[in-house]
Here is the input.
Amino acid sequence: MKKIITLIGALALLFTISSFTSSPASVQDGGDDIIGLWEPSNGKARVKIEKIGSKYYGKIVWLREPIDPATQKPKVDKNNEDEKMRNVPLRGYRMLKDFVYDEESKEWSGGTIYDPESGSLYSCVITMKNDVLDIRGYVGVKALGRTDTWKRIKIKKKN
Amino acid sequence: MRVVLKRFALTLFVSSFAALGFSQIDSSFVEEEEDYSMYDDVEDVGEITTYCSPKIFDLSPNRFLSIGYDVTGTGTLKTSNEGAHKPDDNVARNDQSDLNYHGIRLNANIPVISKSKFVLQVGGGFNQSRITTNQLANAGDHNTLLDEISGGLTSINLNTTLFKPLGETNFLILQLMAEQNGNYTFGSSTEGPDLANTKYSGTALWGKRPNDRKQWGVGVSRTYRAGELNYIPVVMYNYTAANRKWGTEILFPARAFYRRKIDARNILLAGYELEGTSYRLYNTGFNAQNLELRRSEIRARVDYQKQIKGFVWMGVQAGVILNYAYNIDDLTATDNKDFYRGFFGDQTYTFSNTLSPMPYVNVSLNLVSK
Amino acid sequence: MKILQSSILVFSLLSLMVACTPEANNSKEFTINTVLTASGPLFEGSNTCQAEISSNIAEYIKENGITKEQIVDVTLTSAAATIDTSNLNLLESINLQVFSDNFPMQNVAFANVEDNSEKVDLEVADVQEQLKAILFDGKSYIIADATIKEDLDDDLNLNMELVFSINYHKK
Here is the structure.
């Protein structure tokens, strides 16, 4: 009996160590640095970048002009290629999708950025320096694209 | 000692369950709570400068790569005899032939640097006009002239465009182009193209972009669009109406279009474009002289652009070509170098010709960005 | 005799051709019922709920003797949400998306929610590229971005009924 308890304890120790070392919560991923609130250079929207599963996504959480002057209603994705998806509201829209962080190149790649103004979906790669993102959307190859800069913002603390 | 070990083992045994529970929490099951009003009041963490965009809403798509084919109907080319004809002289043009042309047009515009604060685009073009015409009996000079152009006219260019925003509203555009135009065929060292004959043109423009639907500018251009070298003022006015249904795309006098947006993937443009350049005719049948063909035309057209799939769009143009200039200069007196006449010069033309209006169609396949 | 032999030969050849012709695609519908929950308290705006659905699909095709290799494509044909009576008039819209580790996230259905609706039929997207790849890529998830009109102290439960159509070759 004593030997059994000792054996169980040793196994439990081994198991505990392996559990902690394999726990996802204990691994600090450089890719998580992108998580937070960001504003594109034109100041027309604010985007919250979050992690779902192993990938990063960006959702529009604020629009400078939330109402469509043509309809006097909240802006929707009226230029979507799929007619059935043209009533999806832009506030809450995931315009950045499926980015995977590459530790070696220090960039978030393999994702897409959606431009609701034109209904166009561009391939995209993101790099970060000093709380500023370089977001490059491109067509096919990176040479055929454009880079925009986004700055990190944070919600003001209320007194 | 045994008691201590026993208690230690028991503690570990119990704590392993806690670790097991913790490690099995799947952080991918994140439940979000959003209160959008909290995003109204924010403060900057990063620092960037805001610059005006080179585009406004709903402009026709920017073409990275374009391949097209151009076909005209038949026009009438009337030529004078070889001589010294002043620009506004009443010239006898006794010989005439039917003429039409067709050819491929390739263009590329690559944004080598494209950032908020600076856009540099480098491009190139290849246009070829294959000419179909008929020789006349007993029309020596006329037929000799037709011989020089019936092999086709080729234009190759390299160009670069720089867009530099000066803050949130103002901007500068600088565009430069080098062209080789002529009746040359490749592989022959005696028949061009001759690098010394490269034509240089460019435009410098200062503009304002007061909002997302309007952009205007003024500048000056060194251009061959009127068929020969000229220095002219230019005015840019790009506009989109508040209802986002229509607008304008104007770079006067080079082009001016009214734009109608059918939807995000179908656009109709109506207006005109002034096209032209100066072509070197090498070692001609006129005593082996080099001549310069001053060709210019106004293309009034309707232009329909439609998305095929993704970033591939097609374009169809249909309209009429109003020929503005088709005169020819002899360069012997200037040692085969081009010279400046402008709008007010009175240097004479060796041949003073006219070409009548003709219908045309252009179809293209384009890789674009909106 | 020769005519008879030739006829038998032709008939045999024809039979062989028919036997070797692959049979037309088959189609089966299967339904996933799942509850997507956002734990309260919740604030006005978009709230994200998600659940894993790959195990449901894997089980279904196994039970029906279908292998992944037989499957030609998978399409979402309908999506409906049943809302708790306690949350009537709260929901503004539901935007449904699916994704997996190796394939991009896709919008698959959306609906604006009318007042007093207990059941909401979502408009299914016409474009459903790579849905098959997503659903069979190891782990796949479904996300509902549910926009609510006002703050909610309790959980928000969306009972989703998703009907998929699987087109496959018979063995």
Observations:
- Chain B is about 10% helix and 55% strand.
- Chain B has one domain: 62-369.
- Chain B touches chain C at residues 28-37 (CB under 8 Å).
- Residues 8-32 of chain B have pLDDT under 50 and may be disordered.
